[in-house]
C-alpha cells in the first residue's frame, strides 16, 4: 500500500450533476504529483508479473490512468473511444446508462488472441462501462486478465454487475461504501 493518503485528495461535490448526488472529484488526485504517482505505481505494482500484454482504458479519464500504467508495465495502451473518433475499422459495443445507452469502439487490429488485457479506468460506479470495454476486448480475440480503478463506488454494487459476466480480479485503491 502507498504511504500517500490517496483518499485525502478526493473532494465531495454535493448536488452535482443533479440534486441529491455527491460527486467524487478525483481531479485533485491526478493534479498532485504525489497522488498521481502513488496511484499509478500501486496499480502497476499490483499487476506486475501477471502476464499483462496490453492496457485498455475508456474515454476519457481511463486514458489518464491507463496510459501511465501501461508505461510502467512495459506494455502498450489501447483506447476505447466514443463513436467516430477512431480512423480505421472498429468493433462497437453498446451499453446501458442510467438514462439511455452509449457506445464504445476499439480498432479491430488493436489486440489479438495472444493478448492478456488489463482494463483500467479512474472510477467504477455501476460497472457498465468496464463490462462494455471487456466485451470489446473479447471481440478482438484477446483475454480479459483483470480490472483496475482508482475509485470504486461500492454502494452502487459494481462488483456484482461485473461479476455477472467476468470472474477476473477487480482491484481498486479507494472504496466508497
What does this 3D model show about the protein?
The chain has 177 residues and is an alpha/beta fold. It has a single domain (51-176), classed as Rossmann fold (3-Layer(aba) Sandwich). 29% of the residues lie in helices and 35% in strands. It is built from five helices and nine strands; from the N terminus they run E-E-H-H-E-H-E-E-E-E-H-E-H-E. A five-stranded parallel beta sheet has the order 4-3-7-8-9, sandwiched between helices. Strands 1-2 form a two-stranded antiparallel ribbon. The protein has a two-stranded antiparallel sheet with strand order 5-6. Strand 3, helix 3 (61-73) and strand 4 (76-80) form a beta-alpha-beta unit.
Which CATH C-level class is it?
Alpha Beta
Helix/strand-derived class? alpha/beta
Task: Give the N-to-C terminal Cα separation.
Answer: 19 Å
Main sheet specs: 5 strands, parallel
Give average pLDDT, whole number.
95
Number of domains: 1
Number of E-state strands? 9
User: How many DSSP helices?
Assistant: 5
CATH topology: Rossmann fold
Unreliable stretches: none
Helical content class: 25-40%
CATH architecture, please?
3-Layer(aba) Sandwich
Q: Tell the overall outline.
A: globular
Over all CA atoms, what is the radius of gyration?
Answer: 16 Å
Strand line-up of the largest beta sheet: 4-3-7-8-9
- Following the backbone from N to C, one meets helices and strands in this order, namely EEHHEHEEEEHEHE
Beta-strand percentage range: 35-45%
List the defining traits of the structure above.
177 residues; alpha/beta; Rossmann fold; 5-stranded parallel β-sheet; 5 helices; globular
